[in-house]
C-alpha cells in the first residue's frame, strides 16, 4: 500500500506543460482525488468497525494520512484557479467528514476547528478566488502539521508567472 501512496504523491509534483496545455495540473488533480478516495474508504471502514485500528495503522499510517492532507492543501493554495478550486473542495470535504470514533480520532485533519472557523463548507466554492483564499491561506501557517505544505503552496503561487501576475496593472 505504501507504494500506491508513493506513486500518488509523486503525481503531486508533476508540473508538465506541453502542446496540450498544463498536463501536470490534470495529473495533480487526479492524484488529489485518488488520495482523498483512499483516505475516505479506509476511514469509513474503520469507523464502521470493519477495519481495526491496527489494520488502519498498517494500511494508512498516520504520517501518510497527514502528508496526504498536506499535499491536497498545498494544491489548494497553488497558482492555478482550477486546481485550487478542485483541491480546496477535496480539502473541505476531508475537513467536514463525520467525527471519527475515539479509536481513530487521530485520523482527522489537524487544526480541524481552526480550519472550520476560516472555511465553512458553503464557502468551499471560493477557493479559485485569490482575494478570498490568500488571506486565509496565510493563516493556515498556524497549523504546524501542514506548515511546510502550505508554505510550499504559497511560494509556488507567488513564484509562478500566470496571466494575472504578468499582466500590467490598470491605472
What is the makeup of the main sheet?
Answer: none
> Could you tell me how far the N terminus lies from the C terminus, measured between alpha carbons in angstroms?
55 Å
Share in β-strands: under 5%
* Total beta strands: 0
Indicate the radius of gyration in whole angstroms. Answer: 17 Å
Helix content: 55-70%
Q: What is the approximate shape?
A: globular
* Mean of all residue-level pLDDT scores: 89
Secondary-structure element string: HHHHHHHHH
Count of alpha/pi helices: 9
Poorly predicted segments: 163-171
Task: Give the helix/strand class.
Answer: mainly alpha
List its traits.
9 helices; globular; mainly alpha; disordered C terminus; 0% strand; 171 residues
Description:
The protein has helices spanning about 1-10, 25-45, 55-60, 60-75, 80-95, 110-120, 130-140, 145-160, 165. The relative contact order is 0.13. Helix 1 (about 1-10) packs antiparallel against helix 2 (about 25-45), helix 2 (about 25-45) runs antiparallel to helix 4 and helix 7 (about 130-140) packs antiparallel against helix 8 (about 145-160). Helices cover about 60% and strands about 0% of the residues. It starts with a helix and ends in a 5-residue tail after the last helix. By secondary structure, it is an all-alpha fold.
In short:
With 171 residues, this protein is mostly helical. It has helices at 2-11, 23-47, 53-59, 62-75, 81-95, 112-118, 130-140, 147-159, 163-166. It has nine helices and no strands.
Helix and strand topology:
Elements: H1 2-11, H2 23-47, H3 53-59, H4 62-75, H5 81-95, H6 112-118, H7 130-140, H8 147-159, H9 163-166
